[in-house]
Amino acid sequence: MKESLEIAQLGNPILRQQAQLVDNLSDQHLQRLIDELITTVVSQNGVGIAAPQVSQSYRLFIVASRPNLRYPHAPVMEPTVMLNPRIIAHSQEMVKDWEGCLSIPGIRGLVPRYRSVEVEYTGRDGQLQQQELTDFVARIFQHEYDHLNGIVFLDRVESTQEMITEQEYLKRV
Fold this sequence. Notes:
alpha+beta; Peptide Deformylase; 5-stranded antiparallel β-sheet; 3-stranded antiparallel β-sheet; 21% helix; globular
């Protein structure tokens, strides 16, 4: 079994930096990192994780939606590796919903996000992918994409009145 990695916490400078483009998919370190990111997101009950969250400055994240303790109503999907992702189009409609983050434990915030996004990314196999994501999965993509640009969900919360503890959030779901 692959190793679960330590999560960088809010205040760690890497969470505020632009991540570097991935240019060598066959690199052994990168392939091991992908496996370890998948192990980490599952073991931490996350639905997504970006390389900067484990102190690696790569434009890489995993979207891994599934019901778990932190997100009991999440849809099920296979963990998807997204390298050098981009948003190429988005809906006009914005939706606010609660978000948390493995790098900011114990806090949730109401975050406005596009309801749907058209995205492009390179898969683990080196193939360029294009997809339209909607609702919760679109939210995960946007959250993780922000990590690649040094943005955390708290930066997008419009008011401190729209922040609650994880404990209070779990009473509401």
